[in-house]
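Support request from a user on the community tier.

User writes: "When I paste my C-alpha coordinates into the form, the page sometimes reloads and wipes my input. The last time it worked, I copied everything first. Here is what I submitted, just in case something in the input itself triggers the reload:"
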Protein backbone atom coordinates (compact mmCIF):
# COMPACT_ATOMS: atom_id res chain seq x y z
CA UNK A 1 0.00 0.00 0.00
CA UNK A 2 1.53 3.38 -0.92
CA UNK A 3 2.44 5.52 2.07
CA UNK A 4 2.28 9.27 1.35
CA UNK A 5 4.99 10.11 3.90
CA UNK A 6 7.40 7.60 2.38
CA UNK A 7 6.58 8.86 -1.13
CA UNK A 8 7.23 12.44 -0.08
CA UNK A 9 10.50 11.42 1.62
CA UNK A 10 11.65 9.58 -1.52
CA UNK A 11 10.85 12.63 -3.68
CA UNK A 12 12.93 14.82 -1.34
CA UNK A 13 15.87 12.37 -1.45
CA UNK A 14 15.68 12.17 -5.27
CA UNK A 15 15.80 15.95 -5.51
CA UNK A 16 18.92 16.09 -3.33
CA UNK A 17 17.27 17.02 -0.02
CA UNK A 18 17.67 15.73 3.55
CA UNK A 19 15.25 13.37 5.31
CA UNK A 20 15.67 12.29 8.94
CA UNK A 21 14.35 8.81 9.62
CA UNK A 22 14.10 6.39 12.54
CA UNK A 23 16.26 3.30 12.81
CA UNK A 24 16.26 0.74 15.61
CA UNK A 25 19.41 2.36 17.06
CA UNK A 26 19.06 6.17 16.71
CA UNK A 27 17.56 8.56 14.14
CA UNK A 28 19.62 9.10 10.99
CA UNK A 29 20.00 12.21 8.82
CA UNK A 30 19.65 10.81 5.32
CA UNK A 31 20.65 11.87 1.82
CA UNK A 32 21.04 10.07 -1.52
CA UNK A 33 24.42 8.36 -1.06
CA UNK A 34 25.12 8.51 -4.82
CA UNK A 35 24.67 12.29 -5.00
CA UNK A 36 27.79 14.13 -3.72
CA UNK A 37 25.97 17.49 -3.46
CA UNK A 38 23.23 15.95 -1.33
CA UNK A 39 25.81 14.24 0.88
CA UNK A 40 27.61 17.57 1.38
CA UNK A 41 24.39 18.99 2.83
CA UNK A 42 24.58 16.41 5.64
CA UNK A 43 27.99 17.75 6.71
CA UNK A 44 26.72 21.33 6.57
CA UNK A 45 23.54 20.58 8.55
CA UNK A 46 25.46 18.75 11.30
CA UNK A 47 28.51 21.03 11.36
CA UNK A 48 30.52 17.83 10.89
CA UNK A 49 34.13 17.83 9.58
CA UNK A 50 34.36 16.58 5.98
CA UNK A 51 36.85 13.83 6.82
CA UNK A 52 34.37 11.93 9.01
CA UNK A 53 32.97 9.16 6.78
CA UNK A 54 29.27 8.32 6.64
CA UNK A 55 27.45 4.99 6.86
CA UNK A 56 25.44 3.94 3.80
CA UNK A 57 22.10 2.31 4.64
CA UNK A 58 20.76 -0.42 2.35
CA UNK A 59 17.37 -2.16 2.02
CA UNK A 60 19.05 -5.57 2.03
CA UNK A 61 22.42 -7.26 1.56
CA UNK A 62 21.86 -7.79 -2.18
CA UNK A 63 22.80 -4.10 -2.65
CA UNK A 64 26.29 -4.65 -1.16
CA UNK A 65 27.90 -5.42 -4.51
CA UNK A 66 27.16 -1.89 -5.76
CA UNK A 67 29.16 -0.30 -2.92
CA UNK A 68 31.86 -2.85 -2.14
CA UNK A 69 34.58 -4.62 -4.13
CA UNK A 70 35.54 -8.18 -3.12
CA UNK A 71 32.89 -8.92 -0.48
CA UNK A 72 34.66 -11.17 2.06
CA UNK A 73 33.01 -14.34 3.33
CA UNK A 74 32.96 -12.79 6.82
CA UNK A 75 30.65 -10.03 5.54
CA UNK A 76 28.23 -12.58 4.07
CA UNK A 77 28.20 -14.50 7.34
CA UNK A 78 27.69 -11.47 9.58
CA UNK A 79 25.07 -10.01 7.24
CA UNK A 80 23.14 -13.26 7.19
CA UNK A 81 23.15 -13.49 10.96
CA UNK A 82 22.63 -9.85 12.03
CA UNK A 83 20.94 -7.98 9.14
CA UNK A 84 18.55 -6.35 9.21
CA UNK A 85 19.91 -5.08 12.52
CA UNK A 86 22.29 -2.83 14.50
CA UNK A 87 25.52 -3.84 12.76
CA UNK A 88 27.72 -1.71 10.48
CA UNK A 89 30.47 -3.33 8.39
CA UNK A 90 33.53 -1.47 7.12
CA UNK A 91 34.54 -2.91 3.74
CA UNK A 92 36.71 -1.96 0.74
CA UNK A 93 34.71 0.47 -1.31
CA UNK A 94 33.79 0.07 -4.98
CA UNK A 95 35.18 2.62 -7.45
CA UNK A 96 31.87 4.43 -8.00
CA UNK A 97 31.50 5.37 -4.29
CA UNK A 98 31.77 9.17 -3.95
CA UNK A 99 34.84 10.44 -2.03
CA UNK A 100 32.70 12.78 0.02
CA UNK A 101 30.98 9.77 1.63
CA UNK A 102 34.14 8.07 2.77
CA UNK A 103 36.32 11.01 3.73
CA UNK A 104 38.46 9.87 0.76
CA UNK A 105 39.30 6.61 2.57
CA UNK A 106 39.45 3.34 0.67
CA UNK A 107 36.65 1.85 2.77
CA UNK A 108 32.92 2.35 3.16
CA UNK A 109 30.59 1.64 6.12
CA UNK A 110 27.36 -0.25 5.34
CA UNK A 111 24.33 -1.24 7.34
CA UNK A 112 20.90 -2.79 6.72
CA UNK A 113 18.65 -1.29 9.42
CA UNK A 114 15.78 -3.28 10.91
CA UNK A 115 13.32 -0.48 11.69
CA UNK A 116 10.15 -0.85 9.55
CA UNK A 117 10.08 2.85 8.58
CA UNK A 118 13.76 2.80 7.58
CA UNK A 119 13.17 -0.37 5.62
CA UNK A 120 10.11 1.04 3.83
CA UNK A 121 12.07 4.18 2.93
CA UNK A 122 15.07 2.23 1.63
CA UNK A 123 12.91 -0.13 -0.40
CA UNK A 124 10.93 2.70 -1.97
CA UNK A 125 14.11 4.70 -2.67
CA UNK A 126 15.80 1.66 -4.18
CA UNK A 127 19.40 2.73 -3.53
CA UNK A 128 21.78 3.59 -0.67
CA UNK A 129 20.96 6.34 1.83
CA UNK A 130 23.92 7.94 3.58
CA UNK A 131 23.04 8.75 7.17
CA UNK A 132 24.95 9.72 10.28
CA UNK A 133 23.08 10.17 13.56
CA UNK A 134 20.74 13.17 13.18
CA UNK A 135 22.40 15.39 15.80
CA UNK A 136 24.66 18.43 15.59
CA UNK A 137 28.32 17.40 15.57
CA UNK A 138 29.59 16.18 18.96
CA UNK A 139 26.15 16.27 20.56
CA UNK A 140 23.84 13.56 21.89
CA UNK A 141 22.30 11.26 19.24
CA UNK A 142 18.51 11.62 18.82
CA UNK A 143 16.20 8.75 19.73
CA UNK A 144 12.88 10.52 19.00
CA UNK A 145 11.60 12.71 16.15
CA UNK A 146 11.31 15.62 18.66
CA UNK A 147 15.03 15.30 19.45
CA UNK A 148 15.80 15.59 15.72
CA UNK A 149 13.66 18.72 15.37
CA UNK A 150 15.31 20.24 18.44
CA UNK A 151 18.79 19.47 17.03
CA UNK A 152 18.33 20.37 13.38
CA UNK A 153 15.13 22.46 12.98
CA UNK A 154 14.83 23.80 9.43
CA UNK A 155 18.18 22.27 8.39
CA UNK A 156 16.30 19.07 7.55
CA UNK A 157 13.59 18.98 4.85
CA UNK A 158 11.49 16.26 6.47
CA UNK A 159 11.48 14.16 9.65
CA UNK A 160 9.82 10.74 9.43
CA UNK A 161 8.40 9.99 12.88
CA UNK A 162 8.71 6.36 13.93
CA UNK A 163 8.42 6.87 17.69
CA UNK A 164 11.24 6.11 20.14
CA UNK A 165 14.16 4.00 19.00
CA UNK A 166 14.14 0.57 20.54
CA UNK A 167 17.88 0.04 21.07
CA UNK A 168 18.81 3.65 21.80
CA UNK A 169 22.58 3.53 21.12
CA UNK A 170 24.39 3.41 17.78
CA UNK A 171 25.23 0.22 15.85
CA UNK A 172 28.20 -2.01 16.52
CA UNK A 173 30.87 -1.23 13.90
CA UNK A 174 33.04 -4.12 12.70
CA UNK A 175 35.99 -3.39 10.44
CA UNK A 176 36.52 -6.17 7.90
CA UNK A 177 38.94 -4.17 5.75
CA UNK A 178 42.13 -4.96 7.70
CA UNK A 179 44.11 -8.16 8.05
CA UNK A 180 41.98 -9.21 11.03
CA UNK A 181 38.44 -8.20 12.02
CA UNK A 182 38.16 -5.49 14.70
CA UNK A 183 35.31 -3.77 16.56
CA UNK A 184 35.60 0.00 16.05
CA UNK A 185 32.50 0.87 18.09
CA UNK A 186 30.76 -1.40 20.62
CA UNK A 187 26.97 -1.75 20.41
CA UNK A 188 24.10 -4.03 21.24
CA UNK A 189 25.61 -6.87 19.19
CA UNK A 190 28.53 -7.92 21.37
CA UNK A 191 32.08 -8.85 20.37
CA UNK A 192 31.39 -12.39 21.64
CA UNK A 193 28.38 -12.77 19.32
CA UNK A 194 30.46 -11.59 16.36
CA UNK A 195 33.37 -13.89 17.22
CA UNK A 196 30.99 -16.81 17.39
CA UNK A 197 29.78 -16.19 13.84
CA UNK A 198 33.27 -15.47 12.47
CA UNK A 199 34.91 -18.39 14.25
CA UNK A 200 37.94 -16.22 14.97
CA UNK A 201 38.86 -13.70 17.66
CA UNK A 202 38.43 -9.98 17.07
CA UNK A 203 41.51 -7.81 17.49
CA UNK A 204 41.78 -4.38 19.06
CA UNK A 205 41.77 -1.69 16.35
CA UNK A 206 45.38 -1.27 15.21
CA UNK A 207 47.42 0.49 12.51
CA UNK A 208 45.87 -1.70 9.78
CA UNK A 209 42.28 -0.94 10.91
CA UNK A 210 40.10 1.60 9.16
CA UNK A 211 40.34 5.09 10.61
CA UNK A 212 37.11 6.07 12.38
CA UNK A 213 37.45 9.81 12.95
CA UNK A 214 34.04 9.93 14.62
CA UNK A 215 35.41 7.94 17.53
CA UNK A 216 36.67 11.02 19.32
CA UNK A 217 37.38 10.73 23.02
CA UNK A 218 34.78 13.39 23.75
CA UNK A 219 31.52 12.75 21.94
CA UNK A 220 27.82 12.29 22.64
CA UNK A 221 28.27 15.06 25.16
CA UNK A 222 25.73 17.13 27.07
CA UNK A 223 26.65 20.79 27.61
CA UNK A 224 26.67 20.50 31.40
CA UNK A 225 29.89 18.85 32.68
CA UNK A 226 29.24 15.13 33.26
CA UNK A 227 31.16 12.83 35.58
CA UNK A 228 30.82 9.07 35.99
CA UNK A 229 30.87 8.19 39.69
CA UNK A 230 30.96 4.86 41.52
CA UNK A 231 27.67 4.00 43.27
CA UNK A 232 29.58 3.87 46.56
CA UNK A 233 30.34 7.59 46.56
CA UNK A 234 27.42 8.82 44.44
CA UNK A 235 25.35 10.32 47.26
CA UNK A 236 28.25 11.99 49.07
CA UNK A 237 29.61 13.40 45.79
CA UNK A 238 26.17 14.80 44.94
CA UNK A 239 26.00 16.51 48.34
CA UNK A 240 29.55 17.84 48.10
CA UNK A 241 28.99 19.34 44.65
CA UNK A 242 25.56 20.79 45.36
CA UNK A 243 26.77 23.19 48.03
CA UNK A 244 26.81 26.17 48.23
CA UNK A 245 24.13 27.44 45.83
CA UNK A 246 24.84 24.77 43.23
CA UNK A 247 22.69 21.88 42.07
CA UNK A 248 23.70 18.44 40.92
CA UNK A 249 21.69 16.24 38.55
CA UNK A 250 22.12 12.53 39.18
CA UNK A 251 21.39 9.53 36.95
CA UNK A 252 21.36 6.37 39.04
CA UNK A 253 20.49 2.87 37.93
CA UNK A 254 20.40 1.08 41.27
CA UNK A 255 21.11 3.63 43.97
CA UNK A 256 18.08 4.77 46.02
CA UNK A 257 17.00 8.37 45.37
CA UNK A 258 17.93 11.16 47.77
CA UNK A 259 15.15 13.54 48.74
CA UNK A 260 16.98 16.87 48.68
CA UNK A 261 15.93 20.01 46.81
CA UNK A 262 19.54 20.67 45.71
CA UNK A 263 19.70 17.37 43.86
CA UNK A 264 17.69 16.48 40.73
CA UNK A 265 17.52 12.71 40.86
CA UNK A 266 16.73 10.64 37.75
CA UNK A 267 16.27 6.88 37.96
CA UNK A 268 17.49 4.85 34.96
CA UNK A 269 16.28 1.31 34.19
CA UNK A 270 18.33 -1.32 36.04
CA UNK A 271 18.60 -3.68 33.05
CA UNK A 272 21.14 -3.04 30.30
CA UNK A 273 18.69 -2.97 27.33
CA UNK A 274 16.30 -0.56 29.06
CA UNK A 275 19.19 1.60 30.29
CA UNK A 276 20.57 1.87 26.74
CA UNK A 277 17.13 2.57 25.25
CA UNK A 278 16.62 5.56 27.54
CA UNK A 279 20.24 6.71 27.85
CA UNK A 280 20.22 9.60 25.37
CA UNK A 281 16.77 10.85 26.42
CA UNK A 282 18.04 10.75 30.02
CA UNK A 283 21.22 12.67 29.10
CA UNK A 284 19.04 15.33 27.45
CA UNK A 285 16.83 15.55 30.56
CA UNK A 286 19.86 15.86 32.83
CA UNK A 287 21.28 18.57 30.58
CA UNK A 288 18.00 20.50 30.60
CA UNK A 289 17.48 20.25 34.38
CA UNK A 290 19.29 23.55 34.93
CA UNK A 291 21.88 21.91 37.19
CA UNK A 292 25.56 22.85 37.36
CA UNK A 293 26.96 19.34 37.17
CA UNK A 294 25.77 15.89 36.08
CA UNK A 295 26.76 12.76 38.00
CA UNK A 296 26.08 9.37 36.40
CA UNK A 297 26.34 6.24 38.51
CA UNK A 298 28.96 3.87 37.08
CA UNK A 299 27.31 0.92 35.31
CA UNK A 300 28.56 -2.70 35.37
CA UNK A 301 31.72 -3.57 33.44
CA UNK A 302 29.81 -5.97 31.14
CA UNK A 303 27.68 -3.12 29.72
CA UNK A 304 30.53 -2.20 27.42
CA UNK A 305 28.56 -0.25 24.77
CA UNK A 306 26.81 1.86 27.44
CA UNK A 307 30.11 2.41 29.26
CA UNK A 308 31.72 3.52 26.01
CA UNK A 309 29.02 6.19 25.49
CA UNK A 310 29.20 7.36 29.12
CA UNK A 311 32.98 7.65 28.97
CA UNK A 312 32.66 9.75 25.82
CA UNK A 313 30.03 11.96 27.42
CA UNK A 314 32.18 12.56 30.52
CA UNK A 315 34.57 15.46 31.00
CA UNK A 316 36.86 13.56 33.36
CA UNK A 317 38.17 10.22 32.22
CA UNK A 318 39.49 8.94 35.54
CA UNK A 319 36.21 8.99 37.41
CA UNK A 320 35.55 11.37 40.24
O1 LIG B 1 23.40 3.17 14.50
C1 LIG B 1 24.06 3.84 13.70
O2 LIG B 1 25.13 3.42 13.21
C2 LIG B 1 23.52 5.20 13.29
C3 LIG B 1 22.23 5.00 12.50
C4 LIG B 1 21.66 6.29 11.97
O3 LIG B 1 22.46 4.08 11.47
N1 LIG B 1 24.49 5.94 12.53
C5 LIG B 1 25.59 6.47 13.09
O4 LIG B 1 26.35 7.21 12.19
O5 LIG B 1 25.89 6.34 14.26
P1 LIG B 1 27.50 8.24 12.66
O6 LIG B 1 27.99 8.88 11.42
O7 LIG B 1 26.97 9.13 13.71
O8 LIG B 1 28.61 7.29 13.21
C6 LIG B 1 29.26 6.44 12.30
C7 LIG B 1 30.66 6.20 12.70
C8 LIG B 1 31.51 7.47 12.64
O9 LIG B 1 32.25 7.54 13.85
C9 LIG B 1 32.45 7.23 11.47
O10 LIG B 1 33.72 7.75 11.71
C10 LIG B 1 32.47 5.71 11.37
O11 LIG B 1 31.20 5.30 11.76
N2 LIG B 1 32.67 5.31 9.99
C11 LIG B 1 31.84 5.47 8.94
N3 LIG B 1 32.42 5.02 7.80
C12 LIG B 1 33.63 4.57 8.15
C13 LIG B 1 34.72 4.01 7.43
N4 LIG B 1 34.69 3.83 6.12
N5 LIG B 1 35.83 3.68 8.13
C14 LIG B 1 35.88 3.86 9.45
N6 LIG B 1 34.89 4.39 10.18
C15 LIG B 1 33.79 4.74 9.55
MG1 LIG C 1 26.97 10.15 15.43
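"...and here is what came back when it finally went through:"
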Amino acid sequence: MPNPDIEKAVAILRSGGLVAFPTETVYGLGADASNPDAVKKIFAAKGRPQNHPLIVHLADASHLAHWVRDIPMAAHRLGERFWPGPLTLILHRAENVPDVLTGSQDTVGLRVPGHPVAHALLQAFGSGIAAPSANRFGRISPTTAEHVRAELGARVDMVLDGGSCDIGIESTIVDLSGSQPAVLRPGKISAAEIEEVLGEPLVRPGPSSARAPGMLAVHYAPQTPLHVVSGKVLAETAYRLSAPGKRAAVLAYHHAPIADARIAWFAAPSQEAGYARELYANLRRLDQSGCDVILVEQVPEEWDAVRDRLTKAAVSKEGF
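Agent notes: The reload is a front-end session timeout and is unrelated to the input. The chain has eleven helices and 13 strands. The chain has two domains: 4-198, 226-313. Escalated to web team.
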